């Protein structure tokens, strides 16, 4: 399918270092965007394996449970910010100042830890105290909090998909180990990407069967990360394969899909060329554009055709 207003737009000629071969969550796109420039935001004493931003903070997790948090003014597999007070037990919420942010940390030691990040803390090096810890039977690779802050979905080194709420927990089953998960803006749908190249979408109102199943271009090629747009009018789902391909899916029906063949240093790739994808993210749709960002050779932006997206029967995805 077609619909990209430009094949690519190089933003920054950065060369990110990917220290974890499987978990690829190294692209974030804050709500506030600016021009194409690069700067060293912080120099760490360890190699970061995952990053996250939200609620005015940036966090980076490392190999040996290192955790760095800075305000914008065991292996940590993924980090996720949330105001998830409604997920925490009520006795914990009573002990926390109102308005504080939470950081959800997924770990290789079969746990999820929820940290309280005081809004008055401009910089925290090595956060060590958590307010809640959840235990599992497998390493947890990624967790995502629903936009309404009522549920957490987690995936790891098993076929289990864990759906956690304040007073209940249940499991769905994927086809292989899970590497990433995401929530739709409505908090009704969640997606999981798996090691065998499948992406499943469930509706929380009926989880007995997946709502949709999507596949990688390369058979059995691992899907590393999945994202939904954060603004209702676009309603897109994006997921990346381990190498070379990014998929944009119409999340209104999950029937229409566009595949982007990743660029290499600004040039269109041939089918023989391979590009490692280290992360993807959507920009703030309030600025009327979305951008998958990825790559070892730099960061690239693709503009979404948001005008066509407002027409339900339009064939343009991105």
Automatic annotation (TrEMBL):
<dbReference type="Pfam" id="PF00400">
    <property type="entry name" value="WD40"/>
</dbReference>
<dbReference type="InterPro" id="IPR036322">
    <property type="entry name" value="WD40_repeat_dom_sf"/>
</dbReference>
<dbReference type="InterPro" id="IPR001680">
    <property type="entry name" value="WD40_rpt"/>
</dbReference>
<dbReference type="InterPro" id="IPR015943">
    <property type="entry name" value="WD40/YVTN_repeat-like_dom_sf"/>
</dbReference>
<dbReference type="InterPro" id="IPR019417">
    <property type="entry name" value="DUF2415"/>
</dbReference>
<dbReference type="Pfam" id="PF10313">
    <property type="entry name" value="DUF2415"/>
</dbReference>
<protein>
    <recommendedName>
        <fullName>DUF2415 domain-containing protein</fullName>
    </recommendedName>
</protein>
<feature type="domain" description="DUF2415">
    <location>
        <begin position="222"/>
        <end position="261"/>
    </location>
</feature>
